[in-house]
Amino acid sequence: MAKAFKACSVDACKGNAHYSAKGARSLCCAHHKRLIKYGDPLSGHARNGEPKAWLETALKLDISACIEWPFGRGGAGYGMIKSGGKMVTVHTIACTSKHGERPSSKFEAAHSCGNRACCNPNHLRWATSKENNADKIMHGTLLRGENVHTSKLNERDVREIKRVLALGIPKTKIAGDYGVSAATIIAIADGRNWRHVRG
Q: Residues 109-125: pLDDT tens digits?
């Protein structure tokens, strides 16, 4: 017997509801993903031309508050828009509108507010990667160490690993003890990973 079709609870959506969400709503896959990503099943959805028109209006505003991109975002949380046939970050477009083209390839658009979704030109400037990372550390938004969701180690582990490395314990033995690869231990020993943690 065929399973009965249950329509998504979002108005005018013709999708089949597969997921139950807060407030006893039944959502299709696309609206469920938007709910997970943005906290609202209608966020991130745009009609043709709507993101571009929204951005053009936002770039004309002269306000001190953050202007958050309401449409699609990349995995790092930055607003994304199609421009010149490719996807680009919205905050880079906003920075260019305020400060002109980036001085060189060594510069990137940096937020003074620490809000990755913000595209307020007044919150953006061209900065080197080092300067931008210093801002991210200050804002607490730099993904490093145990803040990286795939990390198997924490700062306490790394301090202990650095201590036993100094004792000359083989890297393969340390890797086995902590359930990570020898390459991870070598990267810690060489200072390529977890540089911010003192031994």
A: 999 998 989 999 999 99
